[in-house]
Amino acid sequence: MNFRYPLLLSLKNSQSINKLYAVIEMKRLIIIAVVFLVAQVDAFFLNSRIINGRPARPGQFPYIISLRYDNRHVCGGSIISRDYILTAAHCVAHQVDGDSVEIPPSPFSIRAGSVYLEEGGVVIPVAETIPHQGFNNISFDIALLRLAQPLNFTEHISSISLAESDPPMGANVDVAGWGSLANGQARSEILQYTTLSSLTNQECNRLHSHVHESSLCLLPDQHLLNGICQGDSGGPAVYNDQLVGVASYVMNGCGTAQPNVFVSVAYTRDWIRENSDLN
């Protein structure tokens, strides 16, 4: 059996919570979505990590951001304009009995312009979250964030363009996020990155199980076993200086030889443009 692990970080806020809904859904893949929603939402995310990555240089990934809940890192994301960020839908919404439940935007903010998780750059509140209307944990795990104020672009803060097509089979694709250098270690305070190889969805399905047509599969180095892990959700996959994917989930746990699954930016490009200021 293939297990699907959404890349979420468990985060408890300090305010009182009235009710906990735990939803564990299984359709050949185990999908965990845990939600609080009464007067407060207690968001659930997992520790951020890039497995067997390398530290990034300042300005190497000027488009990456840390998505924060109550000023604690929960997901990654990519700057696509001065006012909009692209991230994973499961970072800002959860599936409860088949319905998408959005987390209110007020606890969310972003840190941009720093390779350091807890210092440097700028922190800006999120004014609105826009998950894809087709999001259901299996497909369209993508969302836009509208910022409360526009970013000022510098050498350390800039946008990345959207790819019009997926990378070719076997292409080297860079992925980045804040996390540990090896499975089971504490997350890194410095941005990490690594390089994966692109697969066609046909080849990805042959290796393991069905992936949605909106997905982009990237394969770890079979000796290094590098890749994304919990909390790297929403982070970028980049090929030829264009954004090709948004980190969604891993198969059979982190640090394995199994594909890492992203949402294809090319497949969802029209939706991104129509719901942001890129149209």
TrEMBL record:
Domain Peptidase S1: from-to ranges: 50-277
PANTHER family linked to this entry: AT26814P-RELATED (PTHR24276:SF91), POLYSERASE-RELATED (PTHR24276)
Protein name: Peptidase S1 domain-containing protein
GO molecular function: serine-type endopeptidase activity
Pfam families: Trypsin (PF00089)
InterPro entries: Peptidase_S1, Peptidase_S1_PA, Peptidase_S1_PA_chymotrypsin, Peptidase_S1A, Trypsin_dom, TRYPSIN_HIS
The family this protein is said to belong to: Belongs to the peptidase S1 family.
Gene Ontology biological-process annotations: proteolysis
Gene3D superfamilies: Trypsin-like serine proteases (2.40.10.10)
Alphabetic keyword roster: Disulfide bond, Hydrolase, Protease, Serine protease
SUPFAM superfamilies: Trypsin-like serine proteases
Parts forming coiled coils: none
